[in-house]
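REQUEST ID: PR-0412
SUBMITTED BY: lab tech R.K.
PRIORITY: routine
TASK: structure prediction, single protein chain
INPUT:
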Amino acid sequence: MLLTYALATGLTSGALYALIAVGLVMVYKSTGIINMAHGELFMISGFIAYAVHVQLGLPYVSAFIAAVVCGFGLGMLIYRGALKPLMRSSLANVLVAAVAISFILKGLARAIWGGQGDYIPFPPILSPMPIMLGPVMVIPQQIIAVGVSVALMLALALFFKATRIGKWMQATADNVKAARLVGIRVEQVYVLSFGIGGAIAAVASVIMAPITLLYPDIGFNLFLKAFAAAVLGGLNSILGAVLGGVIVGLIEQLAATYLHSKFQEVSSFIVIMFALIFMPNGLLGQRNIRKV
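STATUS: complete
OUTPUT:
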């Protein structure tokens, strides 16, 4: 019973980490940049959904759309307004700028919705009462989180395989110079990559906010877990990000269940160190990965 509950909870957390990691990998594959503000896109989008659904009293669907639009637009704005002017300079300048943006967004959230330590509940879509699925007790919101995550992964796979923009993004990720030579608008691909990455973070925030609650520091905490998942799976592999997210989520819950709850927070760092030492390219990453 204890094992099945840990596995179910770990799978839910893993689905969340996988979604955020996919956004990280999408941006990295296209631009070679680790968006250090990606976690704050999750956080801000969640608060936008809260403001629309709880504070304004609009339907959940409206909150979901508002969050996704916010994540998409904010992702593009971060690239165009702050990171694009620094792309021709050193990569360190880009990373520092992204960190600065993350602190700005965090400070904005604290000013509007509450300071450090304020945990804001977000109402779930379905009843919060647990239900039994065979021998496993789960919360309905966990089922929704896993279902939406799987559906979004399938939609992304179809997007890359069947759409022109998806193929442009793959071509740009493989070889930027070749993409320019065949007429692909690389700058447009960069902007869309940041926007789609932000939209994915927004989807994750809306479906997971009822489980994780909302607070200004949640973005950085989830960024570390998602980054661990991306490193483990391979920073240039979307499928690897999904696999890494599930593994990190399961490791967290199993460590908390059978060792001690304090190991739940440090397990992500252990995963990162293990991957960097023994699998520097990740489980499914390519060897020509750009080091940062």
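NOTES: DSSP finds eleven helices and two strands in the chain.
REVIEWED BY: pending
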